[in-house]
Amino acid sequence: MKNAFIFIAAMAMVSCNNPSTKKNKVATVLYNATIIDGNGGAPLPNASVRMEGDSITAVGANVDTTNATVVHLNGKTIMPALISDHVHIGSLKGLGNKAENYTRDNILSQLKKYEDYGVLNILVMGSDRPMLFESGLRDSSVNGLLPGARIHTAAYGFGVPDGAPPINFAMDKVYRPSKPEQVPVEMDSLVKLNPDVVKLWLDDFGGRFPKMDPAIYEAIIDEAHKHNLRVAAHLYYLSDARKLVDNGVDIIAHSVRDSVIGDDLINEMKAKQVAYIPTLSLDEFAYIYARRPDWINDAFFKASLEPGVYEMITSEKYQNDLKNSPVYAKNIKAFETALQNLKKVYNAGILVALGTDSGAMPLRAQGFSEHLELELMVQAGLTPMQAIGVATKNAAALLHIDNRFGTIEKGKVADLLILNANPLDDIKSTRKIDAVYKAGIKVK
Question: Is a pLDDT exceeding 90 seen at residue 417?
Fold first, then answer.
């Protein structure tokens, strides 16, 4: 009882001393802006948003400003905060991913980075470690008691003995069953952590690793469904996508990159309501630094990098090594195929949600990747409005938090981005962040 009292008192002190967890005592009206509400309809010009507590209480042209602090935006743009449904946190630091990096301070620093970039909910895809759950950090974060993005998690994913995911990327806590009979006990262990989804890896990483036995991933999907949990799969090949969809996978967590998806699989995905997370930025990062992209010296990009990464990716040796890599052309082709598949999947009416795999390695910058993903979705053929919907409303729907997040509507949590330019004119304007509001509080 004494320990419980100490814990409760400590959490109260954290909440009281942390500006991002304080509740608004006074209403705030964000006045005279263009509002992109995330629902896909025409933007609202000369409109306002009223916030009380952590919630939106009114949206429109004639919002009541009585007893409210009025913030004059003078035509700036308001849109919902971004949600990223495929990230990794904690083990990345500097130029590597290591288990010893997975500390409370490092996690909080990365959650704050996502917040600074307007990403306020994230789904960590299978790489978390016991400390997150034993310390209560996950629960405190998702309940808004800590600064930064709220953590949703797949906890510990399912991989392959001596295979994917590479164990030297701080993946030593991943379940690695060698036979289907091991899966029920491991799933029971995972369920105790209350994961949002179950993650599995089905990939040979370019022929470097053995793939998961079909009998094992069938068991993983079956056992997850017995616990009413959805399964998200890391994959690369069209043939694996077909098998997984046939066996009931719920979320394809990367693009299919070796072939264009045929209509038969598209139709099956739609019928079974399989969601799709394209992670286009991951595939561009695999080769793009050899070309010195136009954002390489952008302060918005550079601020997202871990120490030492900028020096590495701009070095002549690194860029030449990329160009001369035996997989350079293959990586470019994979990216181009991913663009085609995103457009085809989206046009079919399949739920597409934003995710980037940011934080899995130093090249995939947390925060910036999410904004680059928007640009790449537009490059694939989506309109800016459609891309924004993927990153807000759709991403919330995939996480099953769309009753509270993802759109600017009365009753929703006031997670908002204030932009200095309209991203419907140029999607890269999501990077022109004037302010970030989390649960009605200005946090940047």
Answer: yes
Distance CA 54, CA 92 (A): 31
| Residues paired with residue 151 on neighbouring β-strands, in sequence order | 122
pTM beyond 0.85, yes or no: yes
261 exposure class (CB count in 10 Å sphere: 0-12, 13-18, 19+): buried
* Structure confidence at residue 85 (pLDDT): 98
- Report pLDDT for 95: 94
CA distance 229 to 347: 27
Query: What is the reported pLDDT for 292?
Result: 87
β strands within 158-230, DSSP E? 198-201
Instruction: Determine the pLDDT at residue 25.
Output: 61
3 state SS of 56: strand
Fold topology of 82-399 = TIM Barrel (3.20.20)
**How far apart (Å, rounded) are the C-alpha atoms in residues 155 and 145?**
20
Task: Map out the domains of the chain as residue ranges.
Answer: 19-80+408-442, 82-399
What pLDDT is recorded for position 3? Answer: 41
Q: Sign of the CA dihedral 101, 105, 109, 111?
A: positive
Confirm if 157 and 233 have CB atoms less than 8 A apart: no
Q: What's the burial of 408, exposed, middle or buried (CB within 10 Å: 0-12/13-18/19+)?
A: buried
Pick the CATH number of 19-80+408-442 from 2.30.40.10, 3.30.160.100, 3.90.45.10, 3.40.50.1480: 2.30.40.10
Concatenated DSSP letters of 219-254: HHHHHHHHTT--EEEE---HHHHHHHHHTT--EE-S
Q: What is the mean pLDDT of the chain?
A: 94
